[in-house]
Amino acid sequence: MRRRSFTDQPLLDEQGNPSPAAAVAAERRWWDFETIAPTPRDKLSLSLIFAGLALFLPTVWLLVLTDNPSSKPYFTPHAPLNALAISCFVLGIVPVQPPTPGAVLRAERLSAHQAWLLGLGIPAMLVGTGFMWYNKENNGAEHYTTWHAWFGCLTLTWALLQAAIGAGSVWAGGWVFGGGARARSVYKYHRPDL
């Protein structure tokens, strides 16, 4: 039998007063390991995610930055920035994956999700892709001649579409999609990708 965590308890009692769980939830933050990973399975998953990122991001940056980056000034930023974007996407998805917490933690996790994705991930991807685009233009090379280029274009388009659906269904009560139940019905198309 699994022990009840503070995320299983309501934040308000029957009279609408803050419960003991609310005090615990207010003290914990989305980055608290126990909050993000309440079960042993979650702890293992989170550890594997962080181990993967600890290998992925430095490896990409090391490979690119030790291969005479000054000889390719407009190509060099492409891989490190897109690797940073992928890492931010993973870090942005992690806070919203654990079981649904109370309202306080859910709001904090949504803020973290948006900060990683919209604050750093998508801008890094746009700038990294922009450098590649400029590199092709600067050298008179054709665009979209490889599967890598097409996959990159598809990935960028998908990320922007997901950001638009996610933001439109949450910001300002989801007014972009009609608010309330209508916004929640559109949100389901954003959530499965997480």
From TrEMBL:
Q: Please name the InterPro entries in this protein's record.
A: Cyt_b561/ferric_Rdtase_TM
Q: Where in the cell is it found?
A: Membrane
Q: Which residues cross the membrane?
A: 44-63, 75-94, 115-135, 147-178
Q: Name one Pfam family in it.
A: Cytochrom_B561
Q: Which residues form a coiled coil?
A: none
Q: Give the main location.
A: membrane
Domain of life, per lineage:
Eukaryota
The record places domain Cytochrome b561 at 115-172
What keywords were assigned to this record? Electron transport, Membrane, Transmembrane, Transmembrane helix, Transport
**GO annotation, cellular component aspect:** membrane
Question: Is DNA damage set as a keyword in this record?
Answer: no
Name the UniProt record assigns to this protein: Cytochrome b561 domain-containing protein
